[in-house]
Amino acid sequence: MGEVDHADQVDQQWRVPLPSLVLTQYKILTRDIDLLMVERDVKDAGSSEACRDFATGGVTATEGVVEQKRRKLLMGLFDTPYLSSSQLQGFSSYKYSCVDSSPIAVYISHPFWNWIVQFYPRNWAPNALTLLGWAFVMGLFVFETVLDYDLTANNDGSEHPIPNWFWLIAAIFTWIGFTLDGTDGKQARRIGASGPTGELFDHGLDSWSTVPFTITIFSVFGRGEFSVPCVRLLAVLISVQVVFLVTHWEKYNTGVLFLSWGYDASQYMLTFVYLFTYFVGYKWFKRYAFEGITVAMVFESSFYLACMVSICMSAYNMWHSYSIEKTFKQPSLYEASRPVFSSIALFTISLAWASLSPTDVCSTDPRVFFMAMGTVFSNIACRLIIAQMTNHRCEVMNMLLVLYAFSAGLAMLMPYMELVILRLMCFLVIALHVHYGICVVRQLCDHFKIYAFDVSYLQKQSQQ
């Protein structure tokens, strides 16, 4: 009977349909392969404990590996190596050289910053201060955009002007942003975290801040008789950007960063004007300062004057470096002028587009127009800063500038799509610029073995 039963069992096994048997064996095989692959991935990740959990029947390791792969894939989007190996070597040998001779900075700003930075916790990362200060400035711009998108809220006879309390917030945000921007470097030197990454991060964000600084202050005037047309407001923005550009162009040629006298003065002026507007109201600015000259025109002229003074001072410093000190870094006039070619092209295209636009797109959507132009400028400025910090030749052509020029030309050919083209282009250049900035900072952090917003590595280095 035992032999018969055994024979029946064997016969029953062979009666199982072949496809089902193959499918069962396939499932077992694939499960074993999945187990081996997950164990390998977990081991590669250095998670032996998670591997043991999985081997005992849990799913924690599998979920952990999947999540890790997702994060790696996401951050892999920001691993584009924009910096060459020679540029990274240039950053390694970079030495900071700066002169800040502004009387306002020497006698007011720096003493205040030296005092207040003593109260900062030592675990506050300098780059976090930089980013937070920029966030106050840009956040104010976004907030004001909600209240006055097209810069018309403070027009004569407006039924919904910008609320008075906003200008108090504007003064506070401007002052906090200015203080954080001024103390980030002092905090870095205080805790021993100084380096080229922080300088690039700081000045790169400053180049982008030219847009909110300019547009927010002129929102006080609205539009109309007692304001300035949007094309002239664009010219004011360009004058601010020229001051920033010339300062770093000067360093590209001399090796020394002479900080503009106008920056500190402008921050105090902005804070004062916002406070003054809060107390007296925006209608106070609806007047003529002199016969035929409005208060807005006086403001406009002050920007142009500051720009001209900055250009003259930088020109003198470069001449002195070339003729007297013999420390000029560039071998020819062409090489010395390379950093300004892209910016001149950007300014020319922007003024032409704003002036010749078939739909007057600059007046239709001034904020998007200025932000698109300002983002391209910031990208050009960041690449100039990298060139002078790494002692490399500055690029003449900028791909965001090419996209900007192409969009301007396309808008002229398709006026019925001009506003759509402008907004799409603005979104694209912002995305590309943010991608560039994140990738460069990540690449530098990896090169120097540091973290952008965490200074705990300093304690580990001191213990080694």
TrEMBL record:
One GO cellular component term: Golgi apparatus
Family: Belongs to the CDP-alcohol phosphatidyltransferase class-I family.
GO terms for biological process, alphabetical: phosphatidylethanolamine biosynthetic process
GO molecular function terms listed in the Swiss-Prot or TrEMBL record: ethanolaminephosphotransferase activity
Entry-linked InterPro entries: CDP-OH_P_trans, CDP-OH_PTrfase_TM_dom, CDP_ALCOHOL_P_TRANSF_CS, CHOPT
Pfam family, one: CDP-OH_P_transf
Keywords: Membrane, Transferase, Transmembrane, Transmembrane helix
UniProt protein name: Ethanolaminephosphotransferase 1
Primary localization: membrane
Highest taxon, organism lineage: Eukaryota
Cell compartments where the protein resides: Membrane
Transmembrane parts of this sequence: 124-142, 162-180, 230-248, 268-285, 297-319, 368-390, 396-413
